[in-house]
Amino acid sequence: METAQAFGLAHLWAQSDLMIRAVALLLLAMSVTSWYLILLRLLRQIRARRHEGAIEAFWSAPDFAQGLRRLSERAPDSPFDALAQQAAAAADHLRRHTRHDSLGGTLDADEMITRALRKSIALSTAGLESGMTLLASIGSTAPFVGLFGTVWGIYHALVNISVSGAATLDKVAGPVGEALIMTAFGLFVAIPAVLAYNAINRANRLELSELDAFAHDLLAWFSTGSRIVPLADIPTASSPAAPAMRAATGAA
């Protein structure tokens, strides 16, 4: 019992050299950084869930200005709000500053609005991917950092054992077991980072797909004055809304 209590984290830290301590501190910094990024993304996902229904509230508004106000109230500082604001700013700029006798006047209005939408999506994508490279790097390198600490610790443990001349099992198992703790630390840092990276990456893809669909709807609205009706919302011949749709469109 006394021998078992002689080994542990405190003993490893007390007997370790500068390299082992540097590896331990590096793993600690990587763990703190990864959990900081994970918590930031978790808070962002919680805020994003509160924005559900903001897009439908936007399209159900009587006019575009009222829709912008609804979107800003329900989803402030969101990529969807930024996209709509950017599209409105581009349309307003086009309306006030376009001159037909200048080079800018020869540009198509849809092209200018499309550029504005792409710029907003690019900025939103950069914001969503912020910190993802660091999180992926931590998840991929932490096991090797811990393994390096283990190899270094085992090497020095064996050197000390050979110098002392006591190569019995109880003298070898303790130092080697302490060195293996560094590998466990590396896995402890890497596993949450990898799992969080996969989950965050999937959430980003879903949000970007919704943002891209919203951009297409905005472009259609500025081009035709109406939103593209989703295929699932188009009434079929057997649906109750089909006669009203045919009457509204003048179909036979």
UniProtKB/TrEMBL annotation:
Transmembrane feature ranges: 18-40, 134-159, 179-200
Keyword Cell inner membrane among record annotations: yes
Entry membrane topology: Multi-pass membrane protein
Protein's UniProt keywords contain Plastid: no
Keywords assigned by UniProt, alphabetized: Cell inner membrane, Cell membrane, Membrane, Protein transport, Transmembrane, Transmembrane helix, Transport
Domain of life: Bacteria
Cellular localization per UniProt: Cell inner membrane; Membrane
InterPro entries: ExbB/TolQ_transport, MotA_ExbB_proton_chnl
Pfam families according to UniProt: MotA_ExbB
Domain MotA/TolQ/ExbB proton channel: 108-211
Family as reported in the entry's similarity comment: Belongs to the exbB/tolQ family.
Subunit annotation: The accessory proteins ExbB and ExbD seem to form a complex with TonB.
Free-text function comment from the UniProt entry: Involved in the TonB-dependent energy-dependent transport of various receptor-bound substrates. Protects ExbD from proteolytic degradation and functionally stabilizes TonB.
Protein name per UniProt: Biopolymer transport protein ExbB
Organism encoding this protein: Thauera sinica
